[in-house]
């Protein structure tokens, strides 16, 4: 029998200390609650990223990524296939360590559209219920844009988001805390071209601070140096807003927060009605501990939030046959397609840039364009980013170039600063056959089942992707590219090809316990002292980067936790 040491009870325990766990810890500890933050990875500070411009170590060998030998997932496109474990990173990069994926994100920062939060109601009102394709399980979020807008403001002020105008997006109650980042000649070309096409370009809101900034909690963020090494890297200057330089230091300064790295939660303990705490393993010694808590906040990544609930038998699992149950429901990824353009008569300094430096348009996003004669819903924002090309992984060559040899080398050198990409973060709408459950065969290092991901593009996703790909091609042609790449394949989702770390759903929010696992405060309907915070709450994936909505919902959830701790009971 494995010995378990029972620890003193705390007010709140967070399972994971990334963006969501950090926000919950900061807000709850400021309110006087005692918070324990359990993080399975190591601790990290800004000084840990000093002069670490090692592309091989961080970008290609994933120093800041999850250890897939201990905990991974299995994948299949449909229920007729056997799922196999993901042993190497591909489509997305799961984070590990204090700060989580918020340490190695790029910094592109979007609010979701007002349309997103009431997508089903808005669709039926404008187009009729028959517009919703068979098999799509879109639903309203149980919260409106106006209700979530103040929490977007909180996130933006905490992170020091840099931006000016954002046409075709929701109304703002306050301006951005910092001005937009500098534009570049490549971005200027995109902006000029799309303006001439009658579209509405702007510089993307970014969590790479355009100037030195002190946030409302007194945390100091530096100005971006535009030297790249953002995505997959921690920021050595403390200029990219991440939990490590914002909410975690804020929580620690209260004296009410205890951070425990190297602490891997393996089960949520409960009595059938409420959670009593969590069981975790010290990854350095193998010792097991029970951490009792009044409130358990699952604040890890989408897959782990869902896996922990299923492995702990907490909540009702989703059944794709009956479409009943909610835990595991509405898993979504993102429809990401784009066009490479190669210029013989233009040259750009593409080695400079930052993770959130981009120009974008929203003309083909959400319901900003008429879908009456289109056979899909939603859309995506179209971007031209200058993220600073790194030398190993970024050597695009025109279509028809051999994949190796003398000609490949010549073309790779020639076009390193002459090739750019226009792409889209396209929406992904939920389908009855896309979901998460426990794998019946494969287990993690502790003997618990791995989470199984069953996902493929729906016909709706494919049609949306094809439409958006055509828009990116038109823009690239208008920009004057000499060579333009072919449209990307949307036949099947490929987990081996990197796109973005935007995985959502599994513990979705809503106003009805029959169709959602958590309410608008991300409080579980079936266990009211459990709050499940993260991208797992999204009923669908919008046509934007997912991070800001995750942060806004975490601020709302922290209010719910504080209220529950003081008053008890379920929130509405």
UniProtKB/TrEMBL annotation:
GO molecular function: any one? oxidoreductase activity, acting on CH-OH group of donors
Question: Can you tell which superkingdom this protein's organism belongs to?
Answer: Bacteria
Q: Which Gene3D superfamilies match?
A: FAD/NAD(P)-binding domain
List, for all copies, the residue spans of the domain called Glucose-methanol-choline oxidoreductase C-terminal: 430-554
Which keywords label this protein? FAD, Flavoprotein, Oxidoreductase
In this chain the Glucose-methanol-choline oxidoreductase N-terminal domain maps to 218-333
Family designation = Belongs to the GMC oxidoreductase family.
The name this protein carries in UniProt is Gluconate 2-dehydrogenase alpha chain
Please report the organism this UniProt entry assigns to the protein.
Lentibacillus persicus
């Amino acid at each position: 029998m494995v010995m378990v040491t029972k620890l003193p009870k705390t007010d709140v325990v967070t399972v994971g200390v990334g963006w969501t766990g950090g926000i919950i810890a900061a807000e709850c500890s400021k309110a006087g609650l005692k918070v324990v933050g359990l993080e399975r990875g190591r601790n990290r500070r800004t000084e840990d990223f000093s002069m670490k411009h090692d592309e091989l170590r961080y970008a290609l060998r994933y120093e800041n990524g999850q250890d897939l030998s201990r905990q991974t997932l299995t994948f299949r496109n449909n229920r007729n296939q056997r799922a196999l474990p993901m042993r190497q990173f591909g489509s997305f990069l799961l984070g590990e360590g204090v700060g989580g994926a918020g340490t190695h994100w790029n910094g592109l920062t979007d609010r979701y559209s007002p349309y997103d939060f009431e997508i089903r109601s808005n669709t039926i009102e404008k187009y009729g219920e028959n517009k919703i394709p068979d098999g799509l399980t879109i639903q309203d979020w149980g919260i409106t844009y106006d209700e979530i807008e103040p929490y977007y403001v909180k996130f933006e002020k905490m992170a020091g988001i840099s931006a000016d105008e954002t046409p075709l997006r929701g109304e703002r109650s306050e301006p951005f805390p910092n001005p937009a980042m500098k534009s570049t000649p490549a971005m200027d070309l995109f902006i000029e071209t799309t303006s001439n096409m009658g579209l509405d370009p702007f510089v993307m809101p970014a969590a790479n601070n355009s100037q030195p900034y002190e946030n409302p909690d007194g945390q100091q963020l530096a100005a971006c140096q535009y030297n790249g090494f953002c995505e997959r890297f921690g920021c050595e200057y403390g200029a990219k807003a991440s939990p490590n330089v914002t909410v975690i230091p804020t929580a620690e300064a209260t004296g009410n927060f205890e951070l425990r790295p190297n602490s891997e939660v393996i089960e949520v303990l409960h009595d059938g009605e409420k959670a009593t705490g969590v069981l975790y393993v010290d990854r350095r010694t193998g010792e097991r501990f029970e951490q009792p808590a009044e409130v358990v906040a699952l604040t890890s990544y989408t897959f782990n939030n869902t896996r922990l609930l299923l492995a702990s038998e907490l909540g009702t699992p989703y059944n794709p046959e009956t479409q009943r149950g909610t835990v595991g429901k509405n898993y979504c990824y993102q429809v990401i397609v784009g066009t490479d353009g190669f210029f013989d008569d233009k040259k750009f300094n593409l080695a400079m840039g930052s993770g959130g430096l981009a120009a974008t348009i929203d003309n083909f996003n959400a319901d900003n364009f008429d879908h009456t004669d289109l056979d899909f819903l939603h859309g995506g924002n179209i971007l031209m980013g200058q993220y600073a090309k790194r030398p190993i992984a970024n050597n695009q060559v025109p279509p028809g170039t051999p994949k190796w040899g003398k000609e490949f080398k010549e073309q790779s050198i020639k076009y390193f600063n002459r090739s750019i990409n226009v792409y889209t973060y396209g929406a992904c709408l939920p389908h009855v056959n896309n979901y998460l459950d426990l794998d019946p065969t494969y287990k993690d290092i502790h003997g618990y089942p791995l989470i199984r991901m069953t996902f493929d593009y729906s016909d709706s996703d494919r049609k949306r992707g094809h439409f958006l790909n055509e828009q990116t091609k038109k823009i690239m042609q208008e920009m004057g590219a000499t060579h333009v790449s072919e449209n990307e394949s949307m036949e099947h989702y490929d987990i081996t090809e990197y796109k973005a770390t935007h995985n959502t759903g599994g513990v979705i929010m809503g106003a009805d316990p029959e169709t959602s696992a958590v309410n608008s405060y991300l409080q579980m309907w079936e266990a009211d002292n459990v709050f499940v915070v993260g991208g797992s709450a999204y009923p669908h994936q919008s046509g934007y980067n997912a991070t800001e909505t995750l942060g806004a919902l975490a601020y709302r959830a922290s209010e719910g936790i504080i209220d529950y701790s003081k008053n008890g009971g379920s929130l509405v």
